[in-house]
């Protein structure tokens, strides 16, 4: 959320929570994996939601339709003459907890910044259209989102007397990419950007994600990913024999009897189980608790401990134990691994639908712009059974987008933004080595003015979360380094 198939990013402000391992009805979805889907209503009351009039289509002057976009303001640290910090929302509801916590506020206090957070169109309460029909989703794109940011920045600057202030964009995960692209495409509006865990290169097939999962598990216990692979391979063999389905249903506490009638059914089931490991690796040992997120106590160390526990039985039995542990952690009575249920939820176009928290929207963006499909098509990873074809077919099933259209859309995205070849200035790219998304990010300096901050041993968006005593020394140093860069750039 995170994704089942489309584990994305989600890390900050909005938190994608992209589809996670279980049913969409639990408020999870595919993509960047559980970004900030969980809202803490106690904090919401302290920062009143405000509304900004936004154009539906920024690229059609003949279309005069408008809608209301949600945003939040924190003026507590602002000093006259100070900069303006703009936190960019992503593939999930904007979480007002970020107006009270997070590294960006530490920077704001030191630099006297005004802090704004803008929710992404089509997520949270920012509803540009009457429903989520595919026809309406044509207005959902990173390009429209950047134009939203540009118009918001222009109008807010004029109305608040901030036109001559220096604006800094912040974002993590997909919003991290938006932060980089905002500076790239609108350099006259954005003085600098902090683009954390930003996958700037679009790709249809992203098998490297699971390769990083292997390495991240092995960093805890060299045998761990091998045990996961043995378990996955055993399950694949059992799925070939329908007489095993009753036992598999019991072992994994499925909500309904396992039925494998198509390759899509088996792929969805296998991906759902793999998602347990993918989610934990992506957010390993992070500090998301302030957002109201549960499960942060489940780490790579915990999962590898279960996979190494011979008292639980063979690797297959331990794999099932991991699934039950995750269900207990998220208070789920059973695991919904039924692909037909998933299709039904993802094709519901109502704003009240089970995938309207971000799942239907984010998967549309992957089909129409980014790809990012975490397939099992590399031999150097622990899972089997959810190939690229399974993920691409969902684009056709959900939105009538063909494989050829997907490939063309991804090529256009890289052509428009430049992929890894970013030509700009004053953008810093923090990434964590444990985070699988770093494989599509900037992990080495492009130029002195486009530096990378590669943080060993940390996961997705770790540098954005509030500091704590348990943080690795290199994480604390990374936060300090970003601050020094901002200090330097704001003097330019």
UniProtKB/TrEMBL annotation:
Transmembrane segments: none annotated. Keywords: Glycoprotein, Hydrolase, Protease, Signal. InterPro entries: AB_hydrolase_fold, Peptidase_S28, Ser_carbopepase_S28_SKS. One of its GO terms (molecular function) is serine-type exopeptidase activity. One of its GO terms (biological process) is proteolysis. Residues 1-27 form the signal peptide. Pfam families: Peptidase_S28 (PF05577). Belongs to the peptidase S28 family. PANTHER family: PROTEASE S28 PRO-X CARBOXYPEPTIDASE-RELATED (PTHR11010), SERINE PROTEASE 16 (PTHR11010:SF117). This is Thymus-specific serine protease. The gene is prss59.
